[in-house]
Amino acid sequence: MRNVVVSGGSRGLGLGIVQKLSAAGFRVIAIARSESEPLGRAMRGAKGGPGSIHFVPFDLAATDNIPRLVRDLRKTFGPIYGLVNNAALGLDGTLAIMHNSQIERLVRVNTLAPIVLTKYVVRSMLSEKRGRIVNVASIIGFTGYSGLSVYGATKASMIGFTRSLAREVGRLGVNVNAVAPGFLDTDMTQSLADDQRKQVARHSALRRLPEIDDVANAGEVLLGDNAKSITGTVLTVDAGSTA
Fold this sequence. Notes:
Elements: E1 3-7, H1 12-23, E2 27-32, H2 37-46, E3 52-57, H3 66-77, E4 80-85, H4 100-128, E5 131-136, H5 140-143, H6 149-169, E6 174-181, H7 194-202, H8 212-223, E7 234-237
Parallel strand pairs: 1-2, 1-4, 2-3, 4-5, 5-6, 6-7
């Protein structure tokens, strides 16, 4: 059974990805600071199914502890086939008045942590000469959005990271891609007023917002056997907002 690690897998988009991959037959290891009630239900529901779900508590802001985390994962579960870098903070705020500590926290969790986590996970993939990495970016990384300049910067960095890393590790059998969701109805977008969400939907080609399941489907495709020749790309799932 192929092991896939999903960061931020306890709620929202991360949980949707965890459930989708479990149903597809992967053994999924969800990483988050704490286990949520929905994740607990998903773990119980996955028993007897084609895949399984496991939870490992970890705060990705503690980047110095990531090497030990990856060693423990390999010792417990064996080789890691896939990594989904989903964990991210969605703090909004005007840059001119945003506290430096908030900026540092966003960059640490959204950019530094996934890069360091990937560094140690990809080592085992290279030794196995196979693996899949999917970075969850955002359309904000290339369109911009007022009040999300720092968040947008962190997501843009993940797109550049994806494309460059794909070239570094591709010759050794590791595929690296990104998924760029549009605005989803998750905890991270609750700061948007209803009229703002409706405006985004009106401006999309499909006249609606994408759902969590749509993004999870994209992640499943990129981790599956049919994506063996896809690497270094950004798959946009935004119902046509950027069309």
